[in-house]
Structures are given as structure tokens and as C-alpha cells.
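Quick one, probably user error.
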């Protein structure tokens, strides 16, 4: 009897692993016509502090940013040393601000550009006020999709910023307003990992948290290929990030899953994602 149960279990494991190993030729989001032919999965769940973040990211086609942005009120600089491997996460730091110089921030970006995508980022917000945690598509200021947590206003509004997470398509015509909504959180994003996802297709950008659609924008949908970027920063703007942060802020990213290589025609083995 025990042997029969064991062989049934072994058969189950073999079937499960063969299903998992099956090649996916087209990754399909049911609500998007066509699909995606390429996947890049970056799993930080097994990393340890002291590991080499730059080399892990580089092996997945992602680079760590190193440049300043002068726009204020307080300028910021994306410094490579603020991106590090933590305990089961990529840790993106905004350093406690000492009152002078630029705000030491962090950013990573895909090396390649692509048009249309479904990108899922599992992260835990820092909980330190005064920081923007961005997960976004970017070619330029007029080809940009943002899904942003503002740590000062996750759960409570400030005088100038409503509470919630921001879904935005920047204006595709220079000088025109963005299309955006602020979605109230149903949980405290600093207390656990959640999946923040943007689906970008020809007709809409759709924003999800933990697989639940939270916003869908059909105006100002970008039309050109660009990079995907993740960052953590502050500029001390009371109408946006607030801050600068008074303590070190760490945004923990557990995984990044990028589906790209859009095709209007589904072919081969289809995998629902
Ligand atoms: C403040 O921090 C900057 C780095 O952001 C550093 O260059 C500077 O020396 C610090 N100033 C003081 C007074 O600690
Ligand atoms: C913030 O918004 C208020 C009200 O619109 C405005 O008066 C103020 O100049 C803004 N501050 C900054 C730094 O942009």
C-alpha cells in the first residue's frame, strides 16, 4: 500500500515538473490581444547580504544608475552603493539626509528597450516617510507609465497629496497634463510583500496589486519602446515625495518578472500569465 502511494506521489511530481518545464512560446494575458514571447525573471528571494548586486542584475540585463538630477527643491543623485543585496531582497536605499548636498537615492534600469509589456514587481515599501518608490516605463517625459508609492502618503493624505498609490500615464504631447488616478491602499505596504504590476498594451495601461486590477488608463498610452526602471528617491517636494527622509529608507524588492517581446499573433505553446 505504501509503495502504491509512493509511486502515485512520484508520478504526480513528474507530471508537475514536466508541466513547469514546458516551453512557453507565447505568454498570454487574457485581457490583452496577442501576447509576449520573452520572459526575464529576477528572483532575489535566495540572496544574502554582501552578495554582488551589480553582477546579479547585469546577468539579467539590468544596470544600476549613477547620475544626478538637479531638479529640486533638493537635488538627488542615484548612487550605485545604495543598491545592495539584502536578506532575500534587492534593497534600494535613500540615505538619511544630513541637510546638505544631494539626496543619495537608488535606481536600476533595463538595458534594453521594449514596447508593450507586463511587468510584475514584488516589493515591500520602506515605511520611512519622504520617499518615492517608482516602478515604471520610461523613454522620456512624454513616454512614461508610473506606478508609484509615496511613503509619506500611503495611508494618510498630506495637505497637498492624497493618500494612496499613483497610476500615471505622462502626457504624450509635451506640455499637456498627465492621466492619473490615486488608488487607496487596502493594506499598509510597508508591512509585507505585495505584487505591483503594470500591463502596457496598445490601447491601455492597466495597474494591478496582487493580481487585482486597480486602475486602467486609456489616454496618453505610450507608443514608443523604452526602458523599465525601479527607483527609490526623494526631492523634498511637499507636493510630491515630501521629505527628505530623516532615516535611511530601504525598499525591499523580492522579485521582478518582465514579460516582453509583444506579438499580435499567439502561436506555439500558450501560457496564461
Ligand atoms: C552630508 O552627506 C553628503 C553625502 O550625501 C556628504 O558628502 C557630506 O559630507 C555630508 N555632510 C556632513 C556635514 O556630514
Ligand atoms: C506646493 O503646492 C502649493 C499649492 O499649490 C504651492 O503654493 C507651492 O508653491 C507648491 N510647492 C512647491 C515646492 O512646488
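Nope, works fine. Designed sequence:
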Amino acid at each position: 500500500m505504501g509503495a502504491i502511494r509512493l509511486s502515485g506521489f512520484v508520478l504526480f511530481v513528474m507530471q508537475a515538473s514536466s508541466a513547469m518545464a514546458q516551453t512557453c512560446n507565447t505568454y498570454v494575458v487574457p485581457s490583452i490581444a496577442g501576447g509576449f514571447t520573452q520572459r526575464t525573471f529576477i528572483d532575489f528571494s535566495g540572496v544574502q547580504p554582501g552578495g554582488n548586486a551589480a553582477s546579479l542584475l547585469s546577468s539579467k540585463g539590468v544596470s544600476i544608475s549613477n547620475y544626478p538630477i538637479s531638479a529640486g527643491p533638493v537635488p538627488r543623485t542615484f548612487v550605485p552603493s545604495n543598491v545592495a543585496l539584502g536578506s532575500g531582497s534587492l534593497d534600494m536605499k535613500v540615505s538619511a539626509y544630513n541637510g546638505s548636498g544631494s539626496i543619495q537615492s537608488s535606481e536600476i534600469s533595463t538595458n534594453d528597450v521594449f514596447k508593450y509589456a507586463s511587468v510584475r514587481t514584488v516589493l515591500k515599501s520602506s515605511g520611512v516617510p519622504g520617499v518615492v518608490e517608482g516602478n515604471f516605463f520610461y523613454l522620456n517625459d512624454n513616454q512614461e507609465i508610473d506606478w508609484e508609492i509615496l511613503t509619506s502618503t500611503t495611508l494618510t493624505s498630506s495637505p497637498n497629496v492624497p493618500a494612496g498609490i499613483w497610476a500615471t500615464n505622462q502626457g504624450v504631447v509635451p506640455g499637456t497634463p498627465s492621466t492619473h488616478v490615486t488608488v487607496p491602499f487596502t493594506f499598509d505596504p510597508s508591512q509585507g510583500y505585495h505584487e505591483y504590476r503594470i500591463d502596457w498594451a496598445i490601447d491601455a495601461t492597466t495597474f494591478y496589486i496582487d493580481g487585482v486590477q486597480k486602475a486602467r488608463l486609456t489616454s496618453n498610452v505610450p507608443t514608443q519602446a523604452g526602458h523599465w526602471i525601479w527607483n527609490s528617491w526623494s526631492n523634498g517636494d511637499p507636493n510630491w515625495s515630501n521629505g527628505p527622509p530623516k532615516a535611511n529608507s530601504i525598499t525591499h524588492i523580492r522579485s521582478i518578472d518582465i514579460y516582453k517581446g509583444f506579438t499580435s499573433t499567439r502561436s506555439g505553446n500558450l501560457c496564461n500569465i
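Helices lie at 2-21, 53-59.
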